[in-house]
Amino acid sequence: MRFIFKTKYSQDINIAKHNGDRFWYSLLILIMVVLPLVLDDFYLGEISYICILSIAGIGLMILSGYTGLASLGHAAFLGVGAYTHAFLLTNGIPFYASIPVVIIVSFLVGAAIGIPILRLTGMYLAIATLALGFIAEHVFIKWEHFTGGNRGLPVPQPEFLGMSFYDSVFFYYVCLVFLIAAMFAAINILRSPTGRAFVAIRDSEIAAQSLGVNLGLYKALSFAISGAFTGLAGALLAHYIGYLAPDIFNIFLSLTLLLLIVVGGMGSLHGTVFGAIFVGFLPQLIAICRDYLPSSIGSQPGLEPMLFGLILVFFILYEPLGIYGRWMKIKLFFELFPTYKRQTFKKQKVFTKSDRV
Amino acid sequence: MSLFEVKNITVAFGGVKALNDVSFGVDKGEIFTIIGPNGAGKSTLFNVISRIYEPSKGEIYFENQNISKTKPHNISKLGIARTFQNLELFENATVLQNLLLGRHIYKKTNILSEVFFTPSARKQEHEYRLKVEEVIDFLDLQHYRDTLINGLPYGVRKNVELARALCTDPKLLLLDEPSSGLTNEETIDLGFWIKDIQSLLGITIIMIEHDMSFVNKVSDRILALNYGKILASGLPEEIKNNADVKQAYMGE
Lengths: 357, 252
Known about the structure:
By secondary structure, chain A is mainly α.
């Protein structure tokens, strides 16, 4: 087991808590950088897609995992980001200028939607965000000037730094850089007062308020930040898909994002990446499994959504902390071997809360 | 003029008057205890002060400023901190994070400087931490800095909540049943701490409490409530011998 001797406050503030962290994360980044030498275009495309999903996952994780607000309509923000980006590129705005605009637009859309919608809580908020997803889909269909409606909108693939987005190696690096940048931004938000305020709202609104956290403001801010991350992911997704149609940003995509954060592990940024890997490869896995199943099951069209739902239910029941939680348990098992106790992670329910304040 | 004054507060939930025309004043540096049987309206009073409940009538003054219309999240900025009867800690965060949230009202950074974690954001974290460490030393929480709240025993949680309130650097501290659920020994420690908060930190305390021996030991003045009305108020000795108070608690 590792014991860290702390002599400076900075040690609690820094992202890497010790040299082990530094070594392993550097190694991971190094592997990611040399990956194109080993993998072919198909797998690079898949990994780019996983990076995009991770960025969107970070957005939803900040909202649901850290602020405790459910959203079943996050595909709307992916759509906002994707359409804004495609529209700007079509009008000749270069890539490097378009991305900041996309982030700002999604941030503002998040704030504009968040301020009225966040008067609701719990189940009602979930329903409202679900409705938001449907409304956004219809806006994408009807606002033809901007989105091309049902005809769709081709996404220009401009030159950037002298490279083309058609080049899958280049696109992979772009996605990777944005994922790393998004990760750092999210970590920074979470280790500063705003991130702590989000956690405070999640765990006890009344105490947060009594400590001076403006609930309305911070909830809207969380929605806006979440929107900004997801919008950025949407812009990259536009390049990945190449041709935008409104029905891409449907309820199923929103649920995929939800599955991503639940499977990855609520309340952890590691979880977004684990979840994205899982969600990204699941369709391939299902496609492979189809061949081995009897045709009466294997050729059913609804197999994928059913499995997604089933997995979601199983994770909520048996591993609420997701893949990251499981990873922590395995790690602790080896650290404490042979004295690990299963009870360590049992959730205590000794102190029941009443609704009195 | 008192530091804190409640004037003719009435709170009605439908036909039930939880508080009926309650007025009192608390002087600077005092430990003022509110006692009363269950349902007397003690916690309602606290919730009116922290602006969670809207009074139907009456005003509250803090440092000669009417705070009856202040937004709930601005109360702590004025220098009023509170604890809760049923702990309201941030359960899935560490003790340190809970205490750092106590410094939230002093936040100067905006979201952009936080996204890039600029040197000013880092400096602010250090400043927060200095104050938090002072409180940790004051309340002997050194062992628990990195422990998650949901792994802590009840007594320590109570202590963390008190610490979190102290981190806001308040002028007035509202303690809702600070000794409930504590062992004898912990209650004795708490008595010393409350006295220290008064004398060393110069903080005025309003406290709701049931443990009468504890109340008599630490309080300067006591207010007894029953059915939303003031029964009596005065020095601990006077309250102990007050006929109305005896009747409310023991009948006859």
